[in-house]
Description:
By secondary structure, the protein is mainly α. It is built from 8 helices and 4 strands. Helix content is 39%, strand content 4%.
Amino acid sequence: MSASAAPVNHAPWDALLKKYVDSAGMVDYRGFQQDSVALNDYLQQLAAHLPSPAWSEPERLAYWLNAYNAFTIQRVLRDYPIRSIRELGGEMTLLNTVWDQPFIVLGTEHYSLNDLEHRLIRRQFADNRIHFALVCAARSCPRLRNEAYTAAQLHEQLEAQTREFINNSSKNNLTEPEAPAVSAIFDFYPEDFAKNGSTSVPELINRYAERPIDAAAPLSYLTYDWTLNEQ
């Protein structure tokens, strides 16, 4: 993998998001299809300008968050129309799901979406807010932000994503503090929410929640809706 001295300009991705993603994070995939040349040009820029150790941590994390979300859109478009991204692979986690397919080419190496999330992002960045920024094209995922992540705005963007996700009643039901029903994301990555500045899932939730929950309350997890996040 060769690295680039200058960080990538994410303006082309920003323009596509503003054009084809609404304020609720729902995606106009047909529109993206018509602009596939612009999307592919941006992905080629990512492939040709890999993060360098000279980049700041926000520059590197913004690169990987945008890469994950943009390549997810590209993967959906390859087989669109579909009802769910899960249709694009098998059912064996970490073996043959759509997230295990090494369709991403960056530099001279092939990557899967799981590689980007688990090998690169989660290992390199001690920030569990990433789970509210990575969007796997499903309705229960966090909202796809209709702007690109940038180094200059990254902290504010991740704070907004986390606060919005936790207080979104379609993602988490916090109306009963003694019996909160929360997103399955917290069940997928429990260890991430007990480190990196957090001590537990309830502690993280209460840091952002408009209606705090009982820190000792048992958590139940909402069924994940894998329906495509389509307008």
